[in-house]
Write a structure and sequence with these properties.
Rossmann fold; 46% helix; single chain; 426 residues; alpha/beta; 4 domains
């Protein structure tokens, strides 16, 4: 994989293809987003090319004639790379590079490069490397033999094994090691999470650059890194937020989503996204001023559906209300979304409305239970105490009745604990 975030900005040409059923203005907006991605990665965009094409060419994606035009354009602008808005096959990348003598990058490759540059913690670096290697494996062209110094095994290859096969085997070993590392990291995260089980957790989710980190900073008076670029935040950030005089919750910032987010990236970042998966409440932050706001909401919903948390109680936080020109959108979204608030995180506007909605939704996310247990079953009683806040204990001769309060997630755990206990006694 090429890394374009190097010293000195590289010049790039962006390429988009209008397929059947796609409007030109929509593709132009997609290329604007691709330009933001290129800028985030450290590239300067010198030109944008849009082609209408009914059928994708299996060899050059845009067809040989257009590929030759792109090559000439790259020479004219002294461009270092050509970036496509869609994913390319290994053969298409190889053919385009051979024809143009320029680096060819597709959308997934660009996003992975940005993530590699933004990863700071051990977990994020491991996740990004795993996603990169899975992306690279089918595109391998003898450029990763340096991995032999990390994982060994090169001296054991058979005399008939080609260098390409060695590279593939080395990457396969590295993928296995990184996968095992992420399992260990997940266990460590689970241990840390146990200390937060009794507190309501609200995860900030949304399209990248919607303002999640800014909202977190404003609400909690924090200093999480914020930049007007895509994917400013990769690692989850957790802050405690007091929402009224009687209650608080944990506010969790997560990685932003984007159109055509590489599947390997979603899979690799699953342990980070688990902070959203186990959340009791989602704050879906939306840039209401964006021209493709509807599409961005749809993209986030698709990812939430993939994570199987689309049905988690959700507040739609329509951010950047101060930049909104189409004021009619407010009334429209109020009708479409039951739990919707309209704020400006940067200006601090209407944040009390958000807190009131969070108080309301948090109270709905608290489960009150009354359980009667055998007084001799101290192990089960002890586990229930760890999973809940016991408000009252009524001890009788042979039983104890517990009135408790807990989260829906822990109520589910208690249910299965009692169900398993009942089965073992039968």
């Amino acid at each position: 994989m090429y890394e374009i975030n190097s010293s000195g900005k590289e010049k790039s040409i962006l390429v988009g293809v209008i397929k059947k059923g796609t409007d030109r203005w929509e593709k132009e907006d997609h290329l604007e987003e691709l330009a933001l991605l290129a800028d985030t990665a450290g590239a300067v965009v010198t030109d944008k090319v849009i082609q209408e094409k009914g059928k994708i060419d299996p060899a050059f994606y845009v067809g040989r004639g257009k590929a030759e035009e792109l090559s000439e354009l790259a020479q004219k602008h002294h461009a270092d790379l050509i970036i496509f808005d869609d994913d390319l096959s290994p053969a298409q990348i190889r053919n385009l590079e051979g024809l143009s003598d320029k680096k060819i990058l597709d959308r997934s490759g660009l996003i992975l490069d940005i993530f590699a540059g933004r990863a700071k913690t051990r977990e994020a670096k491991t996740q990004v490397e795993l996603a990169q290697l899975k992306y690279l494996l089918p595109r391998l062209t003898r450029q990763w033999t340096h991995l032999s110094r990390q994982v060994g095994g090169i001296g054991t290859r058979g005399p008939g094994e080609t260098q390409l096969e060695v590279d593939r085997r080395l990457i396969g070993k590295r993928i296995s090691k990184l996968t095992a590392d992420l399992v260990k990291i997940k266990k460590q995260r689970d241990v840390r999470r146990r200390g937060r089980e009794l507190t309501i957790k609200a995860a900030l989710v949304g399209y990248t650059n919607a303002g999640k980190s800014t909202l977190l900073n404003t609400l909690t008076d924090s200093k999480v890194f914020v930049e007007d670029r895509l994917f400013a935040t990769l690692d989850p950030t957790i802050r405690r937020l007091k929402i009224d005089d009687h209650s608080d919750l944990l506010l969790i910032d997560t990685v932003g989503f984007i159109r055509k987010l590489p599947h390997n990236l979603v899979a690799s970042f699953m342990s980070t996204l688990e902070e959203a998966i186990v959340a009791d409440l989602l704050l879906h932050v939306v840039d209401i001023s964006h021209p493709l706001v509807i599409e961005q909401i749809s993209v986030v919903k698709e990812v939430l559906n993939e994570l199987e948390i689309l049905n988690t109680p959700t507040i739609y936080v329509f951010n950047k209300i101060d930049k909104l020109e189409q004021k009619g959108l407010v009334q429209r979204f109020k009708k479409e979304y039951k739990h919707a608030v309209f704020v400006s995180a940067t200006k601090g506007m209407f944040l009390e409305d958000l807190k009131k909605e969070m108080v309301k939704m948090s109270s709905e996310a608290i489960v009150d239970l009354e359980l009667t247990l055998d007084i001799s079953d101290s192990e089960t009683v002890s586990k229930i105490h760890r999973l809940s806040e016991v408000l009252e204990s009524d001890y009788q001769e042979n039983t104890v009745t517990l009135n408790l309060r807990t989260t829906p997630e822990n109520a589910h755990k208690i249910k299965w604990l009692l169900k398993g206990k009942k089965k073992s006694q039968e």
